[in-house]
Amino acid sequence: MTYIRFKATSRSGETSALVVRPEAAKWLLVLGHGAGAGVKHPFIEAIAGALADHRVATFRYNFPYMEQNRKRPDPPAVLTATVRSAIEAAANAVPDLPLLAGGKSMGGRMTSLAASKTPLPEVAGLVFFGFPLHPIGKPGTERAEHLKRVAVPMLFLQGTRDRLADMGLVHEVCTPLGDLATLHVVDGADHGFHVLKRSGRTDEDVVDELAQTVANWALALDVS
Q: What distance in Å separates the CA atoms of residue 224 and residue 122, rounded to the nearest whole number?
């Protein structure tokens, strides 16, 4: 594991990132965290480890508010600018691997929002670990309108018990995106990809499934 610091934005100063690169890595995923937890959150650490097992390296980074121990997320303009800075820093740190970008919940959504405005340099696809489609108890698709302006393939990894993404609405969002959208549904998983004991599966099983799905999906991407 390698520790890196890079400038998030001109006003927000530096933030930190952790790079995990397994032997024979085929991809580098630039991974943003969710709204309430940074790069050392158990899920982020677990998925980075599982992805490494499937030959996907990770560059997981903190948004400025998390780096500065503030609870309230930065404005979207700062978050999306940080996404771009992280991708640039990742490409400089690991220049020989093709890039994916995305994240957990908010980190994924901010990555897609950045990509919808201007394509992300050298990024071949976006990965969403629990796209936060709407607030709890307020189903809607407004948060996904910008996805229509994303020009690269997108992988949606969604749990059926996710209270921030009604599954019917997830299908409603993905279908018009056609071949650019791939939806992988994790039966019984919530927004944090936790599953009930009675499912007969463990959270570790789910994390490995997510990592294997990312690796398999990436194999089909065009990096020419």
A: 10
